[in-house]
Amino acid sequence: MKAVVYQGPRDVAVTDVPDAKIERPTDVLVKVTTTNICGSDLHMYEGRTSFEKGRTFGHENMGEVVEVGQGVEKVKVGDRVVLPFNISCGFCKNCERGLTNYCLTTQPDPSAAGAAYGFAEMGSYGGGQAELLRVPFGDHNALRLGEDAEEKENDYVMLSDIFPTGYHATEMAGVVPGDSVVIAGAGPVGLMAALSATIKGAAKVMVVDRHPDRLALAEQIGAIAIDDSKTDPVQAVLDETMGLGADRGCECVGYQAHDPQGNEDPAATLNMLINSVRFTGGIGTVGVFVPQDPGAKDDLAKQGKAAVDFGLHWFKGQTMGNGQCPVKKYNRQLRDLIAAGKAKPSWIVSHEISLEQAADAYKNFDSRAEGWTKVVIKPGMSSGEKAS
Ligand SMILES: NC(=O)c1ccc[n+]([C@@H]2O[C@H](COP(=O)([O-])OP(=O)(O)OC[C@H]3O[C@@H](n4cnc5c(N)ncnc54)[C@H](O)[C@@H]3O)[C@@H](O)[C@H]2O)c1
Ligand SMILES: [Zn+2]
Ligand SMILES: [Zn+2]
């Protein structure tokens, strides 16, 4: 089958790899119909993780079930399904508590937890930027979709990661109706946090970034855009909140946060939020941070450390939640909001492409080129078809 294969820093190619197949009785095999490029792929694409050459990317996947293992009871051939990026078992100590983001069964390293498709340090599972995807524990992991699955494909595919992840940021921050919320990052995840905060009834949603095209998407759903290349974002949030600070903050950037000139500082967004969220406020950090970052520019960051304003965070009595999103905790409810027409996460999709066009799309998305907000890959589309 054809797949998007990592060849080294900033180098992917679409090549032939062995077909994904049923390996265990509990597996489901999916023909991938849509698979997204994510900001998380970019940390790997840039060579800033241990992701191995020759592996396939793709953790935001949906498709049609084409084969099921002998032990699969619920999922049937022909079902349209969306797969959480987390691969989990459903029966380990963490899964039983709903923490499918830290499954102990599917992560092969006993000193670690959590697994994902096509992801560094999350097991050796193949990614879905390919024609076929093997889904372990299929009954548990596959979320089935209704008759509108094809019509709303670009909405439902966001259930694999970024919509639940944005929602998780607002959950960890503790967003309730009437809150003011500041979001660091207007990438796909930040925009989903803005959508989630709005769905939850936030009174005011502020999104900080410096890309006008991304900020414009935040404004389309009623958020206030704060361009940190033109204004001090902390002061802008204080001005919007009578000097008190926002009730809640969402970190949707991660360890490669940088200033508008491109100078990286892994503490930049955390400190912006600690300074702009009020005393006793909550912060949800879903942007990825890593325990080691050999590609970082200074020694502290190379060790996965960040100069966080912890004193101020403590002094203000703020709380902070961190980590990967447990997609299964939210995907069913968010699916039903999409089905009811009450959420339309596809408003951020900028490009629909074939697999063959992936290398070019990675380049553009990685450079945050104007207008490249979210790329959805359609493995069934031939490269001759016009991409939008
Ligand atoms: N926790 C999870 O489960 C989970 C799931 C998906 C993605 N992620 C992570 O979320 C993060 C965002 O993903 P994405 O797809 O939106 O990525 P993205 O890289 O497309 O978007 C990040 C945005 O942050 C902006 N930015 C950079 N530095 C900034 C700063 N100092 N202040 C304000 N904005 C700044 C960039 O301009 C960009 O628009 C990534 O780290 C990704 O790995 C985490
Ligand atoms: Zn993702
Ligand atoms: Zn588990």
TrEMBL record:
Which GO MF terms does the UniProt record name? oxidoreductase activity; zinc ion binding
- Reading the lineage from the top rank, the first entry is Bacteria
Q: Does the keyword Transmembrane helix apply?
A: no
State its cofactor.
Answer: Zn(2+)
Q: Where is the Alcohol dehydrogenase-like N-terminal domain?
A: 25-136
What range(s) does the Alcohol dehydrogenase-like C-terminal domain occupy?
A: 188-257
InterPro entries attached here? ADH-like_C (IPR013149), ADH-like_N (IPR013154), ADH_Zn_CS (IPR002328), GroES-like_sf (IPR011032), NAD(P)-bd_dom_sf (IPR036291)
Keywords in alphabetical order, please: Metal-binding, NAD, Oxidoreductase, Zinc
Which is an annotated Pfam family here? ADH_zinc_N
The answer to whether UniProt assigns keyword Transmembrane helix to this entry is no
Please name the PANTHER family in this protein's record.
Answer: GLUTATHIONE-INDEPENDENT FORMALDEHYDE DEHYDROGENASE (PTHR42813:SF3), ZINC-TYPE ALCOHOL DEHYDROGENASE-LIKE (PTHR42813)
Q: Which family does it belong to?
A: Belongs to the zinc-containing alcohol dehydrogenase family.
Specify the protein name.
Aldehyde dehydrogenase
Q: Give the taxonomic lineage as stored in the record.
A: Bacteria, Bacillati, Actinomycetota, Actinomycetes, Micrococcales
